[in-house]
Amino acid sequence: MDRKEAEKLYDLGKEPTVDKLLGYDEENKCLKKENDQLKEKISQLEKNSKNSSKPPSSDNPRDKNSKQEGQNSKNGQKRKPGGQPGHKGNHRKLIPVEEVDNLIHYYPDQCEGCGRKLPQDEMANVIGEPFRWQQAEIEPIKPIITEHQCHTTLCECGCCTKAVLPPEVAKSNFGPRLTGIIAYLTAVLHVSRRGIREFCETMLRVTICLGSVQNLLEDTSDALEPADNELKNALPQEPVINADETGWAGRWLWIFVTSTFIYFQVAKTRSSKALEDIFGKVYKGILCVDRWGAYTKYHKGRFQICWAHLKRDFLGILKLGQDTQSEEAIVFAQTMEKLRKKLMAIWYQFKQGYISRSELIKKAEPIMESIKACLAEYAPSQHKCVRNLARRLLKRFDHLFTFIFHESVEPTNNSAERGIRPAVQWRKVCFGNRSDNGAVLTSRLLTITRTCWLQKRNPLEFLVDAITAHRSGNPIPSLL
Prior knowledge:
It is a single chain. The protein is of the alpha/beta class. 51% of the residues lie in helices and 7% in strands. The protein has helices spanning 3-11, 14-45, 61-68, 167-170, 176-187, 193-202, 210-234, 272-279, 293-298, 307-324, 327-351, 357-378, 384-395, 402-405, 414-430, 436-454, 459-472; strands at residues 152-154, 160-162, 240-248, 251-257, 262-267, 286-289, 303-305. The longest helix is centred in the first third of the chain and has 32 residues, at 14-45. The protein is extended and about 125 Å long. It starts with a helix and ends in an 8-residue tail after the last helix.
């Protein structure tokens, strides 16, 4: 509307002007509501692993690169790629001299001062320690082929008897170590079946078909069944468990991390039924999880809700509040994040041994009261995200601070998040499992290899020992 149209409307009188203004006001309210909805949608699209529960793998690589190539938050200067000042670096340690396979000595052939020839053996007048340089090399791999011949013997009675292969030999044309290598390439290095065939033929000089690769993996699955069952049966007895789950191409991969082992289960559902199948009707320990409903529906005991997830929630609400210009959301998020940092600060003091458990509890109590007061204040908030989060946390308030009062409980679910990361990388390569047997194989391989990693054991050697024991009918090694 221009000035001329406005003056014309004014001349029409009070009622037409009021009606027109009310119409404009209603239209303005609708546009404002639509604008807020669009801002909220944009905020949802801009969510990443830092301000939501989305995994890091879903982040836009361009955003990561721009952040890495951007300014350093401390001094405003661009950070150069590679190791930063103060980084200690990692260096390969020298093997002790007595463990090297070949030792070659070098002596200078002439003096740099007078040019006189110098002795080239132990007669040289050596001073100080020599400069040591080690070079690792792999000789061409040649497989060891063992032929087993079963002879037929004629007895004096006229009966012919044929010898039979030992059971551990008759089960496969490929030995336990080669079978273990194939399982290791699959579970740890995420190599495809065709990649394994190429590796065997090129690197190991062993001709093998895709069907044989699959048969060896199924043989490995059978060999690992006792160890897998042993860990599954021990799981419900663990006092503290960190749990998480992720999609697995039509199925769901669950992870359960204890202090001594990691258990994986590929299930057809993400519901509480999967937890019941693993733990039984009741689990009496402490579950450290995010706020996924399956956990709260199944477990009626004590929880530890992950504070790393809560941090992302606070940052997400802060960004949404900034985008929608909601002062209420901004203040709530900033207050909760400030209290979270205070809580984590005293927790790290305890972890580093500066304060005792009783001192931790004493210092945490006023922070807990402040958190409760903040949640109660914003529970009736007009902002939907603020209201929902505040009410949910008030409902589970006691489960926020289990780590303050109980041993072996961490405030975050990071151990499960880190433990499931290699499986997510594998999923991006293998795209899940097509059959139930394949899901069982995946579960067992992940359980065994990640448990060996946690216990600082060599997963390849454990796989070889388990396959050897399985083929010979002996008990396989234990991971407990």
